[in-house]
Amino acid sequence: MIRGVLRLHRAALIVWTVFVLGSVACLVWLTEVTADDVHTTLAACRDTPSDRCGLWASQDYSGPMGWLSTFMYYGFWAVAAWSAGALIGRELESGTARLAWTQDVSPLRWLAAKLAVPAVVLVVGGALFVPVFRWAWSAHRDLMGDDWGFADVFAARGPLVVAYGLCALAVGTLTALVVRRSLPATGIAVAVMIVLNRYVEKHRDGFWPADVSDGRELPRTVWQLGDGSYHPQSHFWPLHLVETGIVLAVAALATVAAFLLLRHRTRPARTPRQESTA
Q1: How many structural domains comprise the chain?
Q2: Nearest one of 75, 224, 238, 236 to 162, comparing CA atoms
Q3: What is the layout of strands, in order, in the sheet containing 229-231?
Q4: pLDDT of 77-136, one tens digit each?
């Protein structure tokens, strides 16, 4: 089953691998090459009366860094669409899943393999991307804003970005099992993940008690909430891990629901004689 899943979805595996390795290579290039060029330009700009000189130079570094975190974070949209449409929905709609079940593969084993392979791929990709992004993000803080509270940066600096991918995988699978048609399941799964993500992001600053300003000017590195409260950088990990736990809990619930639903739908019907005997 594992070899079958890899062979059937090798195109998606190749795209994900290229994306992760390309992102890591780009982060290394930005940190080791582009940053030096930007610093050289900024040094020359000190003798230039225009403020725009230094601004555009910094964008050469911070811009691509921000786009990489954005694409990695919101990649869970693609995961939800792929799992609902190509991974599960298409096989249910075409009947190939039922064909596999009539052979030596039970429905639950089939679903376990379908989920395990992409889950491992997502975790491995995140385990490679996150440490490199954390290193690149902190290497040249003078070239970037104090943006640790931004949604994409907040997620990409820890396991939350992987948690959203796993949640999208589980939600897409459950949606496909409920709808059993690939195209509607794709749209519903993406919509559910967008709503979930927006709701969690809206309440993100409340996942850990905020500090209250005493009236003094706050440093630029804090996450200001606008009501006299703020989160210092030391609150990053508590906030991050709480949200990670919430998203993984949703993923676990969706996974359990998917297995229970598949078990219920594929359970052999009992004959009248079996019911009377029972």
Answers
A1: 1
A2: 75
A3: 211-212, 229-231, 223-224
A4: 999 999 999 999 888 888 888 888 887 788 898 899 899 999 999 999 999 999 999 999
- Distance (Å) of CA 24 to CA 3, 28, 65, 136, 202: 27, 6, 11, 10, 29
Query: Which residues make Cβ contacts (< 8 Å) with residue 252, sequence separation at least 6?
Result: 170
Which tokens belong to 261? 């639903």
What would you measure as the largest C-alpha separation in the chain, in angstroms? 94
Instruction: Tell me the C-alpha distance between 78 and 221, whole Å.
Output: 32
Residue holding tokens 């395990």? 116
Place of tokens 């992102």: 23
Quote the CA–CA distance of 34 and 20 in Å, as a whole number. Answer: 20
Q: Which domain holds residue 145?
A: 2-268
Q: Whole-prediction pTM value?
A: 0.89
Does residue 274 lie within any of the structural domains? no
